[in-house]
Specification:
The protein is built from 21 helices and 18 strands. With 671 residues, the protein is α+β, with helices and mostly antiparallel strands.
Length: 671
């Protein structure tokens, strides 16, 4: 049993452990994100390849849009084999000495079992192919499961945007949480990660640096920089930084990074992302290339520009009083250039006029005055201001800081990429949640190319596609559970329905660390999404009704035309019998009816004459019914775009605006 002295004296081991545990440690932002890379979308090699492409493309779009330049973006993914990668880093390939050390090792018995299974699968596929059934590639299915084989890829993204200043390149790409997108405005990115996270993944998976070429407009040289990042210090490690000639006057940026990835499992996601980006930005031109290790698997897709109309660049706005917290109020006071409290409230917040600021100060208490220095406010006074901000009512912020794609661009993007039979678009008004303005625009299509039967949902947030975690998203839940498609004459199961919803805001309320979906718990957004989809449904319903009525008219016309020969033959036969009867009785032809019989008897009217006249009558009745329907249904009011007929004379620029079908009939009657 231990003595009293031994129990009272701690052992050396416990002292050392206590001393080690009491050391205060810190992590840099780069180190934090390298250990928690799933936050930025780098969960596995396949997702990392997708996220790298996404981040580079979105940065390229921001760069071009910031100078009002129509984006031209080239994305290339080059597959690099393991042997080529080893040669790139100067590592010699070695033959395996101990096969059992490797994860792909299998015993002879396991190999025989696998080969037998593959033989059975091939036999089943051969029988299915002989029966004319569709056969899936079992090898492709096998590769698509799980993580698959992780290879190396060189990802290159080139744009025609603003470019980066020569001196700022190391910090812009080699220091985490540094960027130009901070502030209260609608942005695609928010945290200063983007290409920097791709650089961290490159350093973790391949150890290779990133290459950057950049030039600003009018710059006589191209900046070339090769760098990586010091994870523990969050500082750039520059290998090469030099200026090269720019004889062609190019401006923009080209970024090249080599990472571990998995094209096999994320091929469809990457191509789908590029396609959806082409939908929401039809004013951009994308060229996507995949260069495989074997040339027969190369892919080249060009997403052409459809319009030259670009949305206005989003403007930075001020904070709404109901959306600020105590820390933000303190930061705004530390950064403000205004001297007194009245000026601070009036100029640092939206929806606060001078008169309303005076009313707020009067409500705060006798210790507050309009002229008091704002930087002299105590902690208790700041809490009082914050409490009043949360309790008082303020006007809603305007939507001037938002930059939606617009109905025109959304419609063109849908038509360009899906080629639907029908399309409807709608842009809602600006609304507010928690003091942040937001706007919902929606599109709805029926039919189209590469569209599956049922609901095909396309989600966008601040004009970027959201491809993951669709089940809990507000758009998915609204489209599947809150819209009665049958009431709009749309079959939810059989029709090819494309649902496009884009939400833009100064703050997108993402759920989860991946920021891939918008929750269904914000009533204002859920209501706005439902309303936008319903407005599109109403538009499509009227088109479907008109199409159905036109189809019914055509069917009636077909039915009538089908019986014209039989009716003509019957009428002509009856008239011939009547004419022969009167001819045998030698009756004179006096009235109109007798005149008709006379023409029949003399073969001036034949069966073909009746066929021709009945056909003309059916055509006339069909045209009159169409004109009557168009007048009653008010096609003049529903026409969205004016259509002009150009004249042959050079003296006139246009001839007629075709809004009303009456004008169409009059036009042709004049000829």
């Amino acid at each position: 049993m231990a003595s009293e002295k031994e129990r009272a004296t701690p052992s050396r081991k416990s002292k050392a452990s206590k001393s080690k545990d009491s050391i205060l440690k810190q992590k840099s932002p780069a180190e934090f994100f390298s250990e928690n890379k799933n936050i930025a979308g780098f969960d596995n090699p396949g997702k990392s390849l997708y996220t790298t492409v996404r981040e580079l493309v979105e940065n390229a779009l921001d760069s071009a849009e910031s100078i009002a330049k129509l984006p031209v973006i080239e994305v290339t993914i080059e597959e690099i084999s393991k042997s080529k990668f080893n040669s790139m880093i100067g590592l010699l390939d070695r033959e395996r000495l101990d096969e059992e050390l490797y994860g792909d090792y299998e015993t002879e018995k396991a190999r025989e079992k696998r080969l037998a299974k593959e033989a059975r699968e091939q036999e089943k596929q051969a029988k299915a192919a002989a029966a004319g059934k569709k056969v899936k590639d079992s090898n492709a299915v096998k590769l698509g499961k799980g993580r698959g084989e992780a290879l190396f890829y060189k990802v290159t993204c080139k744009d025609n945007g603003r470019g980066m200043p020569n001196d700022d390149i190391p910090n812009m790409l080699g220091r985490v949480l540094s960027g130009t997108k901070y502030g209260l405005k609608q942005t695609r990115g928010k945290f200063g990660l983007g290409a920097k996270m791709a650089l961290i993944w490159s350093k973790m998976s391949t150890g290779l640096p990133i290459d950057i070429w950049s030039a600003t407009r009018g710059q006589s040289f191209i900046s070339y920089c090769r760098l990586d990042i010091n994870i523990h210090k969050n500082v750039p490690n520059v290998h090469i930084h030099e200026k090269r000639s720019n004889e062609e006057g190019w401006h923009g940026a080209e970024i090249q990074v080599t990472i571990e990835g998995n094209w096999t499992t994320y091929r469809s996601k990457i191509i789908n992302y590029m396609r959806q980006m082409a939908v929401i930005t039809p004013y951009a031109q994308f060229l996507f290339r995949f260069v495989a290790a074997t040339p027969d698997k190369n892919i080249s897709i060009r997403f052409a520009r459809r319009t030259n109309v670009m949305p206005p660049a989003p403007a930075e706005t001020k904070y709404h009083p109901s959306a600020v917290d105590l820390l933000l109020i303190k930061r705004l006071i530390a950064e403000t250039l205004k001297q007194n409290l009245l000026q601070f409230l009036q100029h640092e917040f939206t929806s606060i006029s001078k008169f309303y600021a005076e009313r707020l100060i009067g409500e705060m208490g006798p210790e507050f005055t309009p002229k008091m220095p704002v930087k002299s406010l105590t902690a208790q006074q700041l809490v009082r201001i914050h409490q009043l901000f949360r309790q008082a009512k303020f006007g809603e912020p305007t939507g001037e800081c938002l930059s939606p794609a617009g109905e025109y661009n959304l419609r063109l993007g849908i038509m360009k990429e899906l080629h639907p039979d029908m399309v409807a678009t709608y842009q809602g008004s600006v609304q507010v949640f928690e003091g942040h303005p937001f706007l919902v625009e929606a599109g709805l299509s029926l039919g189209g190319r590469d569209v599956k039967p049922g609901l095909n949902i396309f989600r966008f947030a601040n004009r970027i596609p959201l491809l993951f975690e669709q089940g809990g998203d507000v758009v998915t839940r609204t489209a599947t559970k809150r819209i009665n498609w049958n009431s709009y004459k749309i079959n939810q199961v059989q029709d090819k329905i494309g649902v496009f919803v884009s939400i833009v805001s100064t703050k997108i309320p993402f759920k989860g660390t991946g920021k891939e979906y918008i929750g269904d718990d914000i009533k204002e957004i859920a209501s706005a999404v439902k309303s936008a989809i319903q407005q599109c449904c109403i538009q499509l319903k009227s088109k479907i009704v008109r199409q159905q009525q036109a189809h019914d008219r055509q069917q009636r016309k077909r039915n009538l035309s089908k019986y014209i020969p039989d009716v003509s033959r019957a009428i002509y036969g009856v008239l011939m019998e009547m004419a022969d009867g009167q001819k045998s009785k030698k009756v004179k032809y006096d009235d109109d009816a007798d005149d008709l019989l006379k023409k029949v008897a003399l073969h001036q009217i034949t069966e073909s004459t009746f066929i021709q006249k009945l056909g003309q009558h059916v055509e006339q009745v069909d045209a009159e019914m169409a004109l009557e329907y168009a007048t009653q249904s008010g096609m003049v009011d529903t026409a969205r775009e004016p259509i002009y007929l150009r004249t042959l004379e050079s003296d006139y620029k246009f001839a007629l605006e075709l809004h009303n079908p009456v004008c169409v009939m009059k036009l042709f009657s004049d000829f």
